[in-house]
């Protein structure tokens, strides 16, 4: 019987005290990390739906519990990993780790632990904030930024841990780890989508601001994760997981009953209201994957200009007409979900009209120019991040 | 703690209708069940309103409560009701709480169930944010410590990633790695500091935006025109108009768009209850009766179309005004100067002879305690009268005024909500306001006793003006009381 825990740590740390063996298991702390990030994303979208359908009855709703479970699980599993190395007697293990405040551990575990603590710190802060300023009037509030920063740190930590394992594993496990790496990358894209969702609601998809925000937030992760995975069609796989998840919440949440518990209630709600139909990131992802092998030897900034431009142009090319379609009665069904309105959607608001952020064509086009610059910059950051991730050894 | 802005309490001692008296007291019927309802709205919105319902009998099995807007689209659909908890020591008492999520005119719908079937009663509740929520000290300290921990932790992790993170196992970091790590740690620290500084500014702007929306007591502008005509200008509602809470047309409250109260300062010995005419949307005018020279406190009660009630205030110095005789529903009252007040006296002489007697169980009254204020009217022979006439549709009107004028409440026999608000709860969201709202309703009969449900919001000295109508004249009894904690 192979001691998977010991082998897992050896494999993670690259220590040579035991002979390398192909073990068809993913280390337990990787699974903990994957479950943790999944829990936070499921909880996050569920929480959005909860607030749109029920409002708030208590801080400890199932959705909130799912979110904070991520912090708890990441914190505990990382702490265990760090303490087992720090307090263990194997000197080689310590030499294979980074050192923070006298503790030894994989870099990814320190990141995850930091993220877990940040998430749990945000909980009482967010509870107080709701009482002081209102119930999730905006997603982007100081406590939410702390929470999202914590989840991002957990995700980054898990990515680093997986990458460390991937670099020392062959065969089936390597393939499995690569898939998990892309999965966690997709969770990261979903988290960023959650952060920017107030700017990418369908009524805003004819404004430059929406594309500016998408171009800033998404390419860095798509490119960074895909490059580090060194896998064909990596970007497509990440966006496919993203799309599948969002379609899942769109189709599954409305199956469950929910009624508002807070007033004022402007719309009759009987079931959970999901978030919108996903952005068509799949299309620019396929374009990027088709281009990637052809430009692998280009300079980083040149690649960034190309990829950033292709990302934005293909995204706008598909999203613009689809946004038009989403405003029509043909989209008001369970598949596209354009008919769902949250309970506090005021009757004077117009759910099937575009909201023009930019009042003049020149404002719009200058906004799109900025969006292009954001896409390029974000892509370049993604490339740099990918290079850094691939250099991590501990 | 520089990162956590501590807000000064901005309690402005005001709340929409009435001044400094935010709690709602109401007595009404939910089907066959008579209920006495006390609602204590939160001072921070969104916030939790505490609710207590006392039934006239102990037969009630269950009470459920739901918050809705008083008017408009938010009055159409009700959220899931909450159940009130039956008190274990008093079987006729129920308590519970509700979230009020926005500022404005709300109603709490109470559904009663018992052996005599079901019944429903709606109680209007104005809800405004009057203060910012201050972060508890232990929470602020804890978050500050965690912020420091996370900041130092982040800098340390960045340092570790650059110092050792890219080295092969067993390789010690060299001078280059150490220097690079220190440089990046310093840069990270600067970046973190800048981020926290920006976050503090962000938080401050959110807090300031919230505080701009805090309710402030509206200040009237009052000027005395020639011929003894008092002109009142309503203040600009500002952003409250955009919130559609105030700034919309006024609706009549038992036949009058404004109820104006004048009280002479500082002795509070002279009292007038007048009803100015509306000249323009924000301008009212009143021919004053004979008024001695002096400084006067003005309270003006109005109700907006949204159902939101307001009491506007100002002070004015008036010369002697010969004035015109009181007419219509206008009335006056005279009491002892405050400096000669007898806070143990239970009776007040009435103008046309006779007296008003306060039927109180105890001289000791406590603040924030709901109770009935019962006043018996007696003729000159000391016999209780039974010929009270309706005064604006009511058996009586009462004004509870704290001697420092930080509390003012105009109360009816049914309770503290203005009649126009109650009419909106009965008629529904889209109906037109009734100028004779609840005239004669909620008053079982004009017996010998007129009573008012109320609870003093603060300890201190109060003067109570109680107005009834008899033999064709409005008469005012004046009482003084000291309220303890």
Could you characterize what this model shows?
The complex is a heterodimer of chains A (394) and B (485). Chain A is an all-alpha fold and 394 residues long. In chain A, 64% of the residues lie in helices and 2% in strands. Chain A is built from 12 helices and 2 strands; from the N terminus they run H-H-H-H-E-E-H-H-H-H-H-H-H-H. In chain A, helix 3 runs antiparallel to helix 5, helix 7 (171-196) packs across helix 9 (234-252) and helix 10 (282-291) runs antiparallel to helix 11. The radius of gyration of chain A is 22 Å and the shape is globular. Chain B has 3 domains: 24-127, Immunoglobulin-like, CATH 2.60.40.1930; 137-212, no CATH class; 221-484, Immunoglobulin-like (Sandwich), CATH 2.60.40.1930. Chain B has helices at residues 137-163, 175-212, 239-242, 419-427, and strands at 24-30, 33-40, 47-55, 62-69, 82-83, 85-86, 93-100, 104-114, 117-127, 221-225, 229-233, 259-265, 270-274, 277-280, 283-287, 294-303, 309-318, 331-334, 347-349, 355-358, 365-366, 371-378, 397-402, 408-411, 449-454, 460-470, 473-484. Chain B is elongated and about 110 Å long. The interface between A and B is large, with 50 and 52 residues.
Blueprint (SSEs and pairs):
The complex is a heterodimer of chains A (394) and B (485).
Chain A: H1 4-13, H2 28-53, H3 62-86, H4 91-95, E1 98-100, E2 103-105, H5 107-133, H6 142-166, H7 171-196, H8 208-229, H9 234-252, H10 282-291, H11 300-326, H12 361-391
Antiparallel strand pairs in A: 1-2
Chain B: E1 24-30, E2 33-40, E3 47-55, E4 62-69, E5 82-83, E6 85-86, E7 93-100, E8 104-114, E9 117-127, H1 137-163, H2 175-212, E10 221-225, E11 229-233, H3 239-242, E12 259-265, E13 270-274, E14 277-280, E15 283-287, E16 294-303, E17 309-318, E18 331-334, E19 347-349, E20 355-358, E21 365-366, E22 371-378, E23 397-402, E24 408-411, H4 419-427, E25 449-454, E26 460-470, E27 473-484
Helix pairs in contact in B: 1-2
């Amino acid at each position: 019987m192979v001691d998977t825990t010991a082998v897992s740590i050896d494999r993670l740390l690259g220590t040579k005290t035991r002979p390398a063996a192909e073990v068809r298991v993913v280390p337990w702390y990787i699974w903990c990390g994957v479950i943790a990030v999944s829990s936070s994303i499921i909880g996050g979208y569920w929480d959005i739906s909860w607030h749109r359908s029920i409002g708030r009855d208590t801080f400890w709703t199932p959705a909130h519990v799912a979110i904070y479970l991520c912090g708890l699980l990441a914190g505990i599993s990382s702490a265990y990993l760090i303490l087992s190395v720090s307090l263990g007697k194997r000197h080689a293990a310590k030499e294979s780790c980074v050192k923070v405040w006298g503790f030894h551990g994989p870099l990814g575990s320190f990141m995850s632990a930091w993220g877990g603590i940040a998430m749990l710190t945000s909980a009482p802060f967010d509870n107080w904030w709701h009482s002081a300023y209102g119930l999730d009037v905006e997603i982007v509030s100081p406590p939410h930024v702390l929470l999202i920063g914590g989840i991002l740190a957990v995700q980054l930590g898990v990515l680093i841990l997986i990458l460390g394992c991937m670099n020392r594993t062959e065969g089936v496990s390597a393939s499995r780890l690569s898939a998990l790496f892309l999965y966690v990358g997709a969770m990261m894209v979903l988290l960023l989508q959650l952060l920017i969702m107030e700017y990418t609601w369908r009524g805003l998809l004819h404004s430059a601001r929406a594309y500016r925000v998408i171009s800033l937030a998404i390419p860095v992760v798509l490119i960074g994760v895909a490059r580090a995975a060194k896998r064909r069609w990596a970007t497509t796989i990440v966006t496919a997981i993203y799309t599948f998840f969002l379609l899942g919440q769109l189709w599954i949440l409305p199956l469950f009953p929910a009624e508002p518990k807070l007033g004022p209630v402007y719309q009759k709600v009987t079931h959970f209201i999901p978030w919108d139909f996903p952005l068509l990131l799949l299309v620019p992802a396929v374009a990027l994957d088709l281009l990637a092998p052809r430009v692998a030897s280009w300079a980083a900034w040149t690649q960034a200009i190309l990829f950033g431009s292709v990302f934005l142009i293909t995204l706008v090319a598909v999203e613009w007409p689809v946004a038009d379609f989403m405003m029509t009665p043909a989209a008001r069904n369970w598949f596209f979900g354009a008919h769902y309105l949250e309970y506090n959607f005021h009757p004077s608001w117009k759910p099937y009209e575009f909201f023009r952020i930019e009042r003049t064509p020149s404002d719009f086009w200058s906004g799109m120019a900025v969006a292009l610059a954001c896409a390029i910059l974000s892509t370049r950051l993604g490339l740099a991040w990918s290079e850094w991730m691939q250099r991590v050894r501990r | 703690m520089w990162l956590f802005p501590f807000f000064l309490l901005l309690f402005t001692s005001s709340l929409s209708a009435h001044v400094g008296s935010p709690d709602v007291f109401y007595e009404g019927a939910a089907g066959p069940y008579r209920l006495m309802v006390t609602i204590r709205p939160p001072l921070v919105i969104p916030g939790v309103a505490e609710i207590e319902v006392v039934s006239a009998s102990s037969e009630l099995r269950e009470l459920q409560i739901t918050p809705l807007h008083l008017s408009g689209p938010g009055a159409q659909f009700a959220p899931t009701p909450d159940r009130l908890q039956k008190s274990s020591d008093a079987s006729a008492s129920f308590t519970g709480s509700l979230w009020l999520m926005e500022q404005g005119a709300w109603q709490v719908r109470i559904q009663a169930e018992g052996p005599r079937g079901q019944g429903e009663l709606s109680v209007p509740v104005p809800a405004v944010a009057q203060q910012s929520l201050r972060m508890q000290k232990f929470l602020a300290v804890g978050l500050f410590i965690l912020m420091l921990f996370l900041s130092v932790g982040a800098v340390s992790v960045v340092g570790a990633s650059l110092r050792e993170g890219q080295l092969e196992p067993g390789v010690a970091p060299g001078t280059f790695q150490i220097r690079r790590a220190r440089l990046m740690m310093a840069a990270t620290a600067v970046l973190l500091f800048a981020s926290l500084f920006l976050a503090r500014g962000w938080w401050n702007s959110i807090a300031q935006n919230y505080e701009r929306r805090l309710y402030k007591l509206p200040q009237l502008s009052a000027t005395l025109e020639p011929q003894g005509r008092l002109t009142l200008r309503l203040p600009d509602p500002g952003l409250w108009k955009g919130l559609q809470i105030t700034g919309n047309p006024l609706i009549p409250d038992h036949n009058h768009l404004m109820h104006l109260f004048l009280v002479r300062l500082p002795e509070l010995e002279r009292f007038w209850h007048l009803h100015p005419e509306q000249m323009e949307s924000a301008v009212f005018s009143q021919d004053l009766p004979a008024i001695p020279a002096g400084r006067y406190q003005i309270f003006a009660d109005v109700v907006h179309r949204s159902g939101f009630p307001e009491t506007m205030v100002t002070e004015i110095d008036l010369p002697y005004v010969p004035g015109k005789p009181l007419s219509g529903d206008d009335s006056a009252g005279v009491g002892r100067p405050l400096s000669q007040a007898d806070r143990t006296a239970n009776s007040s002489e009435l103008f046309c002879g006779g007296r008003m007697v306060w039927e109180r169980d105890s001289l000791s009254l406590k603040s924030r305690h709901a109770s009935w204020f019962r006043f018996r009217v007696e003729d000159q022979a000391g016999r209780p009268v039974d010929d009270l006439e309706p005064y604006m549709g009511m058996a009586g009107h009462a004004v509870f005024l704290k001697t420092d004028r930080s509390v003012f409440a105009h109360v009816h026999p049914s309770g503290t909500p203005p009649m126009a608000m109650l009419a909106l709860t009965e008629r529904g969201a889209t109906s037109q306001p009734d100028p004779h709202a609840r005239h004669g309703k909620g008053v079982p009969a004009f017996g010998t006793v007129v009573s008012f449900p109320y609870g003093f919001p603060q300890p201190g000295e109060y003067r109570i003006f109680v107005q009834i109508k008899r033999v064709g004249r409005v008469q005012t009894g004046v009482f003084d009381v000291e309220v303890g904690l």
